[in-house]
Amino acid sequence: MQEPVFSYVPGASFLHKLDPRTKLAAVMLLGILTFRTESFFGFGMLFAFFLALTSCSGLPAIVFFRAVRPMLLFITFIFLAQLFFTEGRVLASFWVLHPSLEGLQDGLRLSARFILLLLFAALMTATTDPSAITCGIERILRPLPLRWLGVSSFELATMMNLSIAFLPLLFERVERTKAAQASRGMYFGKNPFHSIPALVIPLIRGVARDAEELALAMESRGYQGTRRTSIHELSMQKRDWTTLLALVFFAAFILKF
């Protein structure tokens, strides 16, 4: 059985050994850099940087393809919307549609941004254990005065980690629901408007049932939402500081173009 998207893939690579706080900070920095970049040279450098990180991680390409595949329809939609509805120099005419050069450029930029965000997020989740992500988020949020808001850093970290953990389960449930409905004679390509309720309603019920079962499991194990010890003893090493420093120089280099 293939692994769901955004799931952890055990390994012993350089990226696997980095502190989760380093990877969280790196993903946030790369996300900001992805939205600040406007030149195609910058996007090319970001994709090249991702390929270099992938080679260091030792992960197969299928891991990242599965992360992008569920969003391909949405990415294609925003690309076509920019291509046909952005004013500028017309490239060609197709009935009432007039794709423009500026629309093509904007569509490529937006598509590249979404793809890069998905790829970097998939790289972090594939090289970081979910419990380590929780511990890293909690350590980052711990200095903040969250008690004034009636919440603790551990509670926020737990909620964020549950969201990350539920994402691959959601995609897995979509495939299972789709297969179950197809076995009952539902053909999704014939009438999409009729098949959407047949997919969405069982999906929502299944997700609500999974959330309720998770809440019961946490309560039965004595979850109180307070700070607890962790199996991960976080300690920033030389390689972590070197990685962050290299990322800062890389970001400064990209922003020049």
Short description:
This protein has helices spanning 14-17, 20-36, 40-57, 61-68, 72-85, 101-127, 130-141, 153-183, 192-220, 238-255.
Q: What report would you give on this structure?
A:
The chain is mainly alpha-helical and 257 residues long. The chain is built from 10 helices and no strands. The longest helix is centred in the middle third of the chain and has 31 residues. The protein starts with 13 loop residues before the first helix and ends with a helix. The relative contact order is 0.15. The model has no long low-confidence stretch (mean pLDDT 82). It comes from Methanosarcina acetivorans. It is found in: Membrane. It holds the Pfam family CbiQ.
The global form is globular
Mean pLDDT: 82
How many angstroms does the end-to-end distance come to? 44 Å
Number of helices: 10
Tally of individual domains: 2
Low-confidence stretches: none
Tell me the structural class.
Answer: mainly alpha
Radius of gyration: 21 Å
What composes the largest sheet?
none
Number of strands: 0
Transmembrane segments: 40-65, 71-98, 110-128, 148-171
Protein name: Energy-coupling factor transporter transmembrane protein EcfT
Subcellular location: Membrane
Pfam families: CbiQ
